[in-house]
Amino acid sequence: MGKIRSSLNITSFSVLLIICGVLCIIIFSIDIMLPRGIAGGVPYVIVVLISIRLKNSKAILYITIICTLLTIGGYYFSPVEGKLWKVIINRLLAVLVIWSSAFLSIKIDDAHKEIKVLEGLLPICATCKKIKDEKGNWSQIEHYVNDHSDVQFSHGMCPSCLNKLYPDQDHENISKSNN
Question: pLDDT, tens digit, for every residue of 3-37?
């Protein structure tokens, strides 16, 4: 089962890389047909945004570098038109937008990795309910969840525990205040 999943992931990773490559070729082809004064590099943002699906910060970075190089190459191969300062500013803005998108994509990728920390199996002590972390240390479940998520705990007592700990008291009033 694990081998099937990893081959599917490799396949989807490869397909996404091919899609990014084909889009780069199409965008570059259009860019070199447009006059230099038109910001033909901006559509590379689409490629960078698609690269989020790769869930790999290095791949996003490499794709961003390729898109930047193609944007610069588009400047050299496009028909000469427009004022030079406007053309250069358009290309620089395109590169800025591409890198801004890449930065946000990498942040999204990092956030997805953080979210996945609480997925899977958690080793928990059957007696004291402490959690074993990735370093092998045991900690209270509240501390572990606080460290690995944005969850905050509020403590109360369920009716069963109230009856065990305080068998002689009226629990209806206490239970209502816990809800």
Answer: 433 444 778 888 988 999 999 999 999 888 888 77
Q: Taking the complete model, does pTM exceed 0.70, yes or no? A: no
User: What angle do helix axes 57-77 and 2-33 make, rounded to 10 degrees?
Assistant: 20
Determine the Cα–Cα distance for residues 31 and 149; give it in Å rounded to an integer.
44
Would you list the domain boundaries of the chain?
2-118, 131-178
**Continuous H helices in 34-120:** 44-50, 57-77, 84-115
Residue 174: how many CB atoms within 10 A of its CB? 14
Give the number of C-alpha atoms closer than 13 A to the C-alpha of residue 124, restricted to the C-beta side.
12
How many whole angstroms separate alpha carbon 119 and alpha carbon 16?
A: 25
CB 74 within 8 A of CB 40: yes
Q: How far is CA 23 from CA 26, 37, 62, 116, 152, in A?
A: 5, 22, 15, 30, 44
Per-residue pLDDT tens over the stretch 92-139:
888 999 999 999 988 887 887 776 555 667 788 888 888 888 888 898
Nearest to 154 by CA among 132, 178, 130, 122: 178
